[in-house]
Amino acid sequence: MRRKKRNPKSKTSQNEIKKSSESLTTFSSLPYDLTLNCLARVSRFYHPFLSIVSKSFRSLMASPDLEATRTCMGITENYLVVCLDRGKHKDSCRWFTLSPIPKHEKLLPIPSFPYLNPKYSAVVSIGSEIYIIGGHGQKYGKRVLVFDCRSPYQRRRLPKMRVPRRTPAVDVIHGKIYVIGGSMSNNIEDWGEVYDPKAQTWEPVLPTTQDLTSQMSLVQGNLVMGGRIYSMDDDYQLSFITKFCVIKIDNMLCRIRFQFGKFLWCDLKESWRWTTVKGLQGLPNFEYIIPCSDGRGRSVTVWWKTKVYPSEGPNWSWVPITNIWCAEISFKRRCSGMLWGFVEWSKIVFTLDQCDFFPYHFLLQSAIVTY
Predict the structure, then answer these.
(1) H or E stretch including 83?
(2) Is 337 left (phi over 0), alpha (psi -120 to 50) or beta?
(3) Which is nearest to 361 in space by CA: 106, 85, 96?
(4) Count of CB atoms within 10 A of residue 243's CB?
(5) Which one of 1, 68, 314, 369 is least enclosed by Cβ atoms within 10 Å?
(6) Euclidean distance between the first and final Cα of the chain, in Å?
């Protein structure tokens, strides 16, 4: 009789399972504090994957002790949070976070985050909290909602603003939230207001307020809030300027703009002298430019969409799919004084199958949260 040959793959898989089981047993045998110390160093991106390893891991990942350990160790990560308008989809507005892990850049839905349309609101962040200010639908509003990305199931309201506003300019300056413009009032005292988190009160802000004077002097005749540039007329009415931003490179403030398929820059001290950013050729026509902090200096993320028709394999269809692209571009000033740009990564971060319902202005809001 012939002996039945053993399947080498089966033996290998059994060995792998055995080793995995042994490693889990070894890890779980560590002291509790040491286990927390190890897990605290793991990026939040991997927390959902660790939660499905075992019941003990799921319990550890949900433990408040893990969050407390990260806080004590000073471990934080920056996440870019964006809200996409998916057009004709039910509950079309959805919030996503962009994974900060290299080679894993993808838009991940924030679980249980409300389907709240922030198109006419303003968004700003402090730490892990996102503030959605004013604007409800197409109406002017006084409301301010706060969501914590660490516990998206919970929300709270701040005291209402003094004046109803829609698409105002916002920024956090010295720990206070400044909300400028966006009202129907012509009263100069209603031009802006500031929220003090300690006193939990709103106070009027005038164009002569010292904290804003420096923001208005950065770009002559404009207001700079959160790296974005707003034009300002003689009546102090604001209008957001798209495809422009202000970033800080080597202690130098630069104005960046995208025009005719290329990046241009200028030192704010010489705002009349625009120069082409070196090293960036053949770029697509970006629809959005978002300034962001990348830990190495200053960079921007750029966003655009493409429509493609699946033409091969079982997914062949006459119906197009929509791809949302994102790229991170960093800037560095070299000895010659010229500004160089580098594409850190560029890829499809979101795909909507079987339709092309994305409106032209698909990105409604964005913020950088840290936790």
Answers:
(1) strand 78-85
(2) left
(3) 85
(4) 14
(5) 1
(6) 66
Alpha-carbon torsion (39, 44, 49, 52), positive or negative? positive
pTM of the model: 0.80
Cα separation, 17 vs 198, in Å, equals 54
Q: What domains appear along the chain, each with residue ranges and CATH number?
A: 20-73 (no CATH), 78-370 (2.120.10)
What amino acid is encoded at 355 in this protein?
Answer: C
Four-residue CA torsion sign, 61, 75, 294, 115:
positive
As a whole number of angstroms, the distance between CA 264 and CA 283 comes to 13
Answer whether 98's CB lies under 8 Å from 80's CB. Answer: yes
pLDDT score of 227 more than 90: no
What's the DSSP call for residue 105?
-
114 confidence band (pLDDT: 50, 70, 90): low
**Of 138, 137, 131, the residue nearest 117 (C-alpha):** 137
Say how far apart CA 337 and CA 348 lie, in whole Å: 33
Q: Which two tokens stand for residue 75?
A: 């471990």
Dihedral over Cα of 211, 214, 216, 218: its sign? negative
Confidence of residue 321 (pLDDT cuts 50, 70, 90): confident
Buried b (16+ CB within 10 A) or exposed e, 211-235: ebeebbeebeebbbbbbbbbebeee
CA angle at residue 336 from 280 to 296, to 5 degrees? 60
CB-CB contact of 351 with 107 (8 Å)? no
